[in-house]
Design brief:
By secondary structure, this protein is mostly beta strands. It has one domain. The protein is built from no helices and 25 strands.
């Protein structure tokens, strides 16, 4: 698949770059990429799989770099979830971008300037990075099976896919975002934090409130944020000569969650997929 590069300039005052790279590099979920069943082409090979969205919107409030782990009280647990003290530790962190009201980014749109307060971080070696986003994600997508398109509807539900005859027009819908695994997972056994290790490093996430406190709940009637933290395998070194930082999120074959059926309709619903980060100073 051809690599698509989307860039946002002026993240830092020193003309840095935030680069969303849609190359198929790594996977934070164990879900397979969607494909048709070779013995039954109108049916998905895997009933839950990931694909590429047409639109993937997030509202970003803050980004930054940290010397120490801002979620040091959140540790690995089986199943992708995490043990957590529901606290954040930003004493060693410096913000590189802030927006009081949040700045909405569509990862599939192309070049966009982040509008907000842009801050150059001090020269240092940073072992972690973070991002604060609204706990909602906007998605639009479609998937084709055996010449028939299935398109997203403008609602988030267990049946938000429509079958074309053979084509259809996909609609934008909004889903709750609780972590970077992808998709709404607010259940009776809800856990407020996740921990994922993949080939480019470690991702953690924690639900927080607007004051930055850990919120051990997934009550979406209240105003929430998601704090995502990243520990890349190679630390981020900022020197006086550093001109910027490329922050890479991979969404190709990851950003759209697809749920299939054995009976009609062969695709029943769509949801949001996961985010995969990487960092490179220049």
């Amino acid at each position: 698949m051809q690599k698509i590069l989307i860039t946002f300039s002026k993240v830092f005052l020193f003309s840095s770059l935030i680069l969303f790279n849609f190359g198929n590099k790594s996977n934070a979920r164990t879900l397979p990429v969607c494909e048709a069943d070779s013995s039954d082409p109108p049916v998905l090979k895997d009933k839950e799989c990931v694909a590429t969205p047409q639109s993937y919107k997030l509202k970003v409030y803050e980004m930054g770099l940290c010397v120490d782990d801002p979620l040091k009280g959140t540790t690995e647990k089986t199943g992708g979830y995490a043990n957590t003290d529901n606290k954040i530790y930003l004493a060693s962190c410096t913000a590189t971008f802030k927006s009081e009201n949040g700045f909405e980014v569509d990862f599939m749109k192309g070049t966009t300037d982040l509008v907000g307060q842009n801050i150059r971080p001090p020269s240092n070696t940073y072992h972690h990075a973070y991002i604060k986003i609204e706990n909602y994600v906007g998605v639009k997508g479609k998937y084709t099976l055996d010449g028939t398109e299935y398109c997203s509807k403008d609602v988030a539900s267990y049946s938000n896919a429509t079958k074309g005859s053979p084509t259809c027009i996909s609609k934008y819908f909004v889903v709750d975002l609780f972590d970077f695994r992808g998709g709404p997972i607010c259940t009776d056994s809800y856990e407020s934090a996740t921990y994922l290790s993949f080939d480019s490093g470690i991702t953690k996430s924690l639900i927080i409130d607007t004051s930055g406190n850990g919120a051990a709940t997934c009550d979406t009637t209240k105003n929430r944020r998601v704090l995502g933290t990243f520990k890349p395998k190679s630390s981020i070194k900022i020197t006086p000569e550093t001109k910027g930082l490329e922050v890479t999120f991979s969404v190709i074959d990851k950003g759209l969650l697809v749920n299939g059926n054995s009976s009609d309709p062969k695709i029943s619903s769509f949801s949001s997929g996961s985010l995969i980060p990487a960092f490179k100073p220049f």
